[in-house]
Amino acid sequence: MKKQVLVLLAPGFEEIEAVTVVDILRRAGINVVVAGTIEGPILAARGVTMLADISVDKIMNDSFDMIVLPGGGEGTEHLGKDARVNQILEQAVKDGKFVAAICAAPTLLARFMAGKKATSYPGMSAMMPDVVYTEDRVCVDGRFITSRSPGTAMEFAFELILQLAGEERVRAVNDGVMARL
What we know:
alpha/beta; Rossmann fold; 7-stranded mixed sheet; 5 helices; 32% helix
């Protein structure tokens, strides 16, 4: 059965982190649903406008193998204040699904990660006092996957493939994009 991944977008999201994840996962044959916290175009951190595939309201009862939170300071703030996003995260953690976040967004997972290893954008560690903080570019601890910044987005995306589909799929996708892994 094809893996299902939900990428959540809110105004102010970091473009590289969202688009890289969506692109690389789709190249791996993973079904990616991009859900927006608002209807219509969503303005990202650097002024790029994107359209989500669907509204968060329409996927609230759907099941996904992984939830991905792109960062960006403003985007993370909007995601954190959204009750629907919090409900999705709580259910995913309860159900033992993969939950992944990059840049500032790992701060939204901190409440679920006491005693677990995590990373984030430099300076965010103060917002994650109960995690075992690392400066690794990508960090995996159980079903939680975190990463540092736009510059780590490609490594992050490939780690998501590795967790969902294995090493062979990582190699197959990288044969086409030739990233340094």
